[in-house]
Write a structure and sequence with these properties.
It contains four helices and four strands, in the order βαβαββαα. It has 91 residues and is of the alpha+beta class. The protein folds into two domains: 53 residues, no CATH class; 37 residues, no CATH class. The strands form two sheets. A two-stranded parallel sheet has the order 1-2. A two-stranded antiparallel sheet has the order 3-4. β3 and β4 form a beta hairpin. The longest helix has 14 residues. The protein starts with 8 loop residues before the first strand and ends in a 6-residue tail after the last helix.
Length: 91
């Protein structure tokens, strides 16, 4: 139904929630195909999906943007790593 009105932007909230890896891979490919030439705003916790679908990523913690950039910039961002992976503890 979303595509019937030929939208310029598509918003998806957790589209892969509850899916198996096989289903997720299929849906990621389908979303890429269906959103060609459109803006896609997706909220997703599966980072493999986020990096596959996105040219630009913003990471939020408690409702505040802590980083915005390319997939590679986000992967390497110290603040993102601390927020989602925790800090290394010295023994």
């Amino acid at each position: 139904m979303t595509l019937a009105s030929d939208p310029k932007m598509i918003l998806l909230d957790e589209p892969m929630a509850g899916m198996s890896r096989e289903e997720t891979n299929y849906m990621t490919s389908l979303i890429l195909e269906l959103t060609q030439g459109r803006t896609l705003l997706v909220i997703e916790h599966d980072m493999q999906v986020v990096f596959s679908l996105s040219e630009r990523v913003s990471v939020l913690v408690y409702g505040e943007v802590i980083a915005t950039g390319t997939s590679q910039e986000i992967r390497n961002d110290r603040h993102v790593q601390e927020a989602y992976l925790g800090e290394e503890v010295s023994a």
